């Protein structure tokens, strides 16, 4: 785990007597785009909440920039951008208000970049969050997360519930920004096609357990090995991540 | 401290609608006097009504400050930013205190100006602080919906028994300051519990409720016992 920007070390979380994460260990190396896949309720959001120091693991520990996320959350947050699954911004706060709020907290806040990105996306800075569309809320949150010039970015299913076009717009913008900055990124999403374009590493959570983790190309190569790979491919078509995901999750469910 | 002040400013700004409302309500007890031109019609009932309204407002502000965002997941907005837990709790509390004190002042200002006395403000402020503290605790208790509710029931029962014991000792007849001290201890315990609830519980409802209960009842019961024993001595 040494050298990982974001890491979970044998993290177990129980919520109301139910095991939500079961000895999960993962490491996101510097500069990687790590996609965490899993069905609804697999434990992705809980893993993220542990990583950002909002939830204390019952066992194990979460590390942010090599430090315990629960104990050093506040200092680490200045280097981390977060886009939650659901917007948590107060409904009457405007994008301009969010920028003013954030500018006081982030030493590297890029006010000009924040305003320019919103202009490019044609999002009003004076509309309260409660009146923004879901897509615009997410874009403002991504813009705010990037404006803090983070060393790492955590995105919890930012395109959940979007139609195909809106999802593509968000991800294309994101890909452009990530490529420009080389920011270490951890993203949870159900959009496997986007993961194939975005991610360098992939992890799969199933029933609170990490059942697969590694570099995307290595995983695809392993699963697509002609004839004797886990997917038992018998033709030369390239293996799709969707097939790997389905095989791993159904295998894990059968084993459970 | 920057984070605490940013949050306090945000909490005050978020409740700006309360200020003109309080200004309007503050004039209500004086309205009959203005209409008939007789100061004698400013009745005690309307003044008590004004006080009760201000205390209800203090409870509502307290409940909305921590309990509601804890339930709605909006505390994550603060915890996802580089602000220490104590600063988040302190900022929210500071913002709430500014709003409650300001609302009390604005509510009482017309009556205080009419009678040329600030006693109305002083009378309203201490119960308002207690109501605000109770609102903070009640907000977490009601909105967290956790099993720590049982601990609160036990703590409340223990505190009620202790109050009964203090009353039976007749210490308040010897010295009014006993009750003032008890009220001050109550306010301090409620504020400390609310601070701990946010700083330790963060966005976890059950943990926040546990922190509140484990801070509130021991402080309240121990402080009350110390005050009673000190009064007897």
Task: Describe the protein.
The complex is a heterodimer of chains A (256) and B (233). Chain A has 256 residues and is an alpha/beta fold. Chain A has nine helices and ten strands. In chain A, the strands form two sheets. In chain A, strands 6-7-8-3-9-10 form a six-stranded mixed beta sheet, sandwiched between helices. In chain A, strand 1 and strand 2 (18-29) form a beta hairpin. The longest helix of chain A has 18 residues, at 164-181. Chain B has 233 residues and is an all-alpha fold. Chain B has twelve helices and no strands. The A-B interface holds A 16, 49, 52-56, 73-78, 82, 84, 86, 88-90, 92-93, 101-102, 104-106 and B 2-3, 6, 10, 14, 73-74, 76-77, 79-85, 87, 202-204, 206-207.
**Averaged pLDDT of chain B:** 89
Largest interface: A-B, 26 and 22 residues
Distance between the amino and carboxyl termini of chain A: 27 Å
| H-E string of chain B | HHHHHHHHHHHH
Q: Would you tell me the structural class of the helices and strands of chain B?
A: mainly alpha
Query: What summary fits the major beta sheet of chain A?
Result: 6 strands, mixed
Assign an overall shape of chain B.
Answer: flat
- Tell me the number of strands of chain A: 10
Shape of chain A: globular
Q: Into which percent range does the helicity of residues of chain B fall?
A: over 70%
**Helix/strand structural class of chain A:** alpha/beta
Strand content of chain B: under 5%
End-to-end Cα distance of chain B, whole Å, is 42 Å
Total count of helical runs of at least 4 residues of chain B = 12
Residue share in β-strands of chain A: 25-35%
The rounded Rg of chain A comes to 19 Å
Number-wise, the strands of chain B total: 0
Number of helices, where a helix is a run of at least 4 consecutive DSSP H or I residues of chain A:
9
- Oligomeric status: heterodimer
Query: On the 0-100 scale, what is the average pLDDT of chain A?
Result: 87
As a whole number of angstroms, the C-alpha radius of gyration of chain B is 20 Å
């Amino acid at each position: 785990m040494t050298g990982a920007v974001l890491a979970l070390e044998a993290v177990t979380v129980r919520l109301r007597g139910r095991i939500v994460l079961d000895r999960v260990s993962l490491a996101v190396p510097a500069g990687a785009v790590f996609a965490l896949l899993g069905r609804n309720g697999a434990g992705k959001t809980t893993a993220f909440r542990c990583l950002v120091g909002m939830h204390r693991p019952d066992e194990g520990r979460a590390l942010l920039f090599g430090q315990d996320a629960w104990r050093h959350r506040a200092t680490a947050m200045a280097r981390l951008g977060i886009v939650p699954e659901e917007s948590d911004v107060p409904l009457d706060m405007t994008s301009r208000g969010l920028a003013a709020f954030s500018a006081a907290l982030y030493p590297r806040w890029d006010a000009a970049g924040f305003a320019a990105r919103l202009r490019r996306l044609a999002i009003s800075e004076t509309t309260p969050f409660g009146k923004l569309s879901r897509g615009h809320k997410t874009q403002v949150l991504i813009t705010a997360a990037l404006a803090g010039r983070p060393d790492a970015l955590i995105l919890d299913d930012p395109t959940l519930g979007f139609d195909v076009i809106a999802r593509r717009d968000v991800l294309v913008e994101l890909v452009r920004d990530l490529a420009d900055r080389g920011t270490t990124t951890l993203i949870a999403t159900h959009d496997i096609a986007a993961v194939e374009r975005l991610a360098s590493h992939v992890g799969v959570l199933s029933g609170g357990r990490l059942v697969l983790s590694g570099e995307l190309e290595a995983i695809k190569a392993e699963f697509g090995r002609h004839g004797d790979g886990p997917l038992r491919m018998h033709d030369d078509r390239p293996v799709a991540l969707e097939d790997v995901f389905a095989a791993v999750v159904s295998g894990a469910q059968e084993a459970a | 401290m920057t984070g605490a002040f940013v949050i306090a400013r945000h909490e005050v700004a978020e409740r700006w609608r309360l200020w003109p409302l309080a200004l309007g309500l503050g004039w209500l007890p004086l309205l009959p006097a203005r209409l008939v031109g007789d100061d004698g019609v400013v009745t005690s009932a309307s003044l008590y009504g004004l006080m009760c309204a201000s205390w209800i407002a203090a409870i509502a502000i307290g409940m909305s400050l921590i309990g509601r965002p804890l339930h709605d997941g909006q505390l994550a907005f603060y915890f996802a930013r580089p602000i220490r837990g104590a600063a988040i709790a302190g900022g929210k509390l500071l913002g709430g205190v500014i709003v409650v004190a300001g609302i009390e002042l604005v509510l009482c200002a017309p009556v205080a100006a009419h009678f040329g006395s600030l006693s109305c403000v002083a009378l309203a402020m201490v119960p308002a602080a207690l109501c605000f503290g109770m609102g903070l605790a009640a907000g977490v208790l009601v909105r967290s919906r956790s099993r720590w509710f049982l601990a609160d029931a036990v703590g409340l029962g223990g505190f009620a028994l202790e109050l009964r014991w203090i009353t039976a000792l007749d210490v308040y007849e010897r010295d009014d300051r006993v009750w003032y001290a008890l009220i001050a201890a109550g306010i301090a315990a409620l504020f400390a519990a609310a601070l701990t609830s946010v700083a330790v519980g963060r966005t976890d409802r059950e943990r926040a409720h546990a922190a509140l209960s484990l801070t509130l009842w021991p402080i309240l019961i121990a402080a009350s016992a110390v005050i009673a024993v000190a009064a007897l001595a």
